[in-house]
Amino acid sequence: MDGLKLHDLRCFDAVVTQGSFQAAAAALNRTHPSVFAAVARLETQLGLTLLDRGGYRVSLTDEGRHFHARARLALRELEHLQSYAGQLASGEETILRVVMGDVCPRPRILGLLSRFFADRIRTRLHLEYEAISGPVERLMDAEADLIFHRANPSDPRLERIDLCEVAFVPVVAPGFLPFQDTREITPEAMRPFTQCVIRDTARRPPAENFFVLDGAQSCSTPDHMMKKELILHGLAWGHLPEWLIEDELRDGRLISIAGRHIPGRTETVAAVRRRDRPHGPVAKALWIYLETQERAAP
């Protein structure tokens, strides 16, 4: 099998996919005799009969069918390798590392990413989830090219595109509280009840906390979907993004306790990147795309 030629493999694959030597020759812009010779040479090198030439149309032998399946994988991998080399030569990123934070309205952000990457099949999206201060930490540690999260607008190291606002609503399940007027509940009155909070995924979390009631017993979850389930089952109370619980608030499965004492909070979700780091062509294109989407938003 020494000296197996890529040209011979491509000719063999073309004969199989096109159905004849003549059609394969036309598809490859080769002559009929050269394609015939390439396949014959491949069979000789392998010691296998790959094609049955006895019928009106050539067909695969059993050995040919098994070999062709593996050959197609090898040819496809080679195409990817050539594309990868071309991408490296052009300076385009082969991977773009993006982190979604816990405040993100996932359907909207994933929709933006899906539409952008649909035309950039040579760059792989490496998407991760982080919570609380985790996204910004990943960005500052150079482990992400871009994050979708809240960010300090006064931080001179960060550049941002504000995309949307997300309201966080304090909610409980029906029957969780003994109070009649939930709109006048004070933080002191809520201390006996378990509060569900999101775990900070940062390796070096800051002292700042979000929505946490001092002195209250709490439980933690990795994301808002799990937090929502706990609250729906009456195991705790907590703040949830309004986009995630619109149906439950409408049909009464969750009750808002937002009022003047526990008002909730609105967070601005932004695309955020470092000012002090270079950005590749795909990262720059994504940034321009997000700016365009932000300007087009109602």
TrEMBL record:
Pfam families named in the record = HTH_1 (PF00126), LysR_substrate (PF03466)
Which top-level group of life is the source organism from? Bacteria
UniProt cross-references to Gene3D superfamilies, sorted A to Z: 3.40.190.290, Winged helix-like DNA-binding domain superfamily/Winged helix DNA-binding domain
Q: Which residues form the HTH lysR-type domain?
A: 4-61
Q: Which UniProt keywords apply?
A: DNA-binding, Transcription, Transcription regulation
Which InterPro entries does UniProt cross-reference here?
LysR_HTH_N, LysR_subst-bd, WH-like_DNA-bd_sf, WH_DNA-bd_sf
What does the sequence similarity comment in the record state about its family?
A: Belongs to the LysR transcriptional regulatory family.
Q: What is this protein called?
A: LysR family transcriptional regulator
Task: Tell me what organism the protein belongs to.
Answer: Mesorhizobium dulcispinae
